[in-house]
Amino acid sequence: MILNKPVNVQSLTLANNLPFILIAGPCQIESLDHALETAGILKNICRELNIRLVYKSSFDKANRTSIGTKRGPGMDKGLSILEEVKSKLKIPVLTDIHLPEQCAEVASVVDILQIPAFLCRQTDLLIAAAKTGKVVNVKKGQFLAPWDMKNVAKKIASTGNENILLCDRGTSFGYNTLVSDMRGLPIMAQTGYPVIFDATHSVQQPGGMGGSSGGQREFVPYLSRAAVAVGVAGLFIETHENPDQAPSDGPNMLHLKDVAPLMKTLIKIDQIVKSDGQ
User: Fold this and answer.
1) Who contacts 239 (Cβ-Cβ below 8 Å, separation ≥6)?
2) Residue 240: which H helix or E strand, with range?
3) Of 3-7, 111-115, 160-164, minimum mean pLDDT range
4) Closest CA to 55 of 131, 114, 117
5) Based on the number of CB atoms within 10 Å of its own CB, is 50 exposed (0-12), middle (13-18) or buried (19 or more)?
6) Is residue 239 within 8 Å of residue 42, measured between CB atoms?
7) In angstroms, what is the C-alpha Rg of the chain?
8) Does residue 232 come out as left (phi exceeding 0), alpha (psi in the -120 to 50 range) or beta?
9) How far apart are CA 167 and CA 179, in angstroms?
10) CB 265 within 8 A of CB 225
């Protein structure tokens, strides 16, 4: 039997045996108006479907494929926008951090600090994030086995902070390709920490377009259904009203209009999987 270690985010409780939460939003913060509009639409969808929501967007995409691609508005402006979303819409917010010195300032605004996959073994970053006391969502590196994430979690927990989420976003499979091994979800759940499945980055094709990453957003619903059927605490989905014109990760982002229909299906699967109390 897998031990569950619930994690609280504001009034939300995440656990592998509870109904899934949705972490969603555009890959990159674009403007205050865009963030408020997108978050408002997502909040309405989740309220109608009785899904718990965390809004996600990044102030800096520090690991872009090429030097010429847009990275975002930067930390000061980005945090100001996220603070507006949080206060006006009354929903928790999540964003990426990349450096230990960013952690305290970002934690003063957001509810969940996210460690990008490429940085998941950076001890100083993990410790600095953990010391804020905030929830830390760690993306599993594309280069890591799922059982290796227990060591990542131990680094965070060594500070006394066990507000830990472990997130799978696919595993490198040759060049410019990722594959999702659904065995990894219950393996990471053996730590007891809530497991999140990132359905949109799992269909990314890193560097697949030469100067930028490609993606196959048509497979997002398939992987989402598979992950929820395995059993997860949450689903991570980047979404945009016009993905093909988005400044980053457009090819793998789900169209905003497709979020509600997908969630309706996932709710049914989630209820079946968790009806036995597992």
Assistant:
1) 24, 25, 26, 38, 42, 200, 253, 254, 255, 256, 259
2) strand 234-240
3) 3-7
4) 114
5) exposed
6) yes
7) 17
8) beta
9) 15
10) yes
The DSSP bridge partners found for residue 213 are: none
In this prediction, what percent of the chain has a pLDDT beyond 70? 92
Q: In the predicted model, is pLDDT for residue 118 greater than 90?
A: yes
The model's pTM is 0.94
Pick from 55, 64, 59: which is nearest to 259 by CA?
Answer: 55
Number of residues in the chain: 278
Strands 254-255, 234-240: pairing is parallel
Please report which confidence band the pLDDT of residue 98 belongs to, taking 50, 70 and 90 as the band edges.
Answer: very high
Kindly state the tokens that stand for 79.
Answer: 């945090």
Q: Report whether 215 contacts 202 (CB < 8 A).
A: no
Per residue in 80-91, pLDDT tens?
Answer: 999 999 999 999
pLDDT of residue 277: 54
